[in-house]
Amino acid sequence: SSESKQGTREFLNELSVISSITHHNLVKLHGCCVDGGQKMLVYNYLENNSLARTLFGMFNQISIFIRTLNRW
């Protein structure tokens, strides 16, 4: 349908913008794969666990630090 084609075009346009952004705190987006209704993103490989574990681990460390500060 024309609606799904427009959605795919918008997705690809956003990917074009996102993939051009570089910053040392961001994972590089290299591209994507669109297969039917499936849309997949291709990022740099992250060593030492997953992005979720890295983020949640960081938040966990911050919350432990805050709890420790609150005890003082």
UniProtKB/TrEMBL annotation:
Residues 4-55 form the Serine-threonine/tyrosine-protein kinase catalytic domain. Gene3D superfamilies: Phosphorylase Kinase, domain 1. It comes from the Eukaryota. GO terms for molecular function: ATP binding; protein kinase activity. InterPro entries: CR_Ser/Thr_kinase (IPR052059), Kinase-like_dom_sf (IPR011009), Ser-Thr/Tyr_kinase_cat_dom (IPR001245). Keywords: ATP-binding, Kinase, Nucleotide-binding, Transferase. This is Serine-threonine/tyrosine-protein kinase catalytic domain-containing protein.
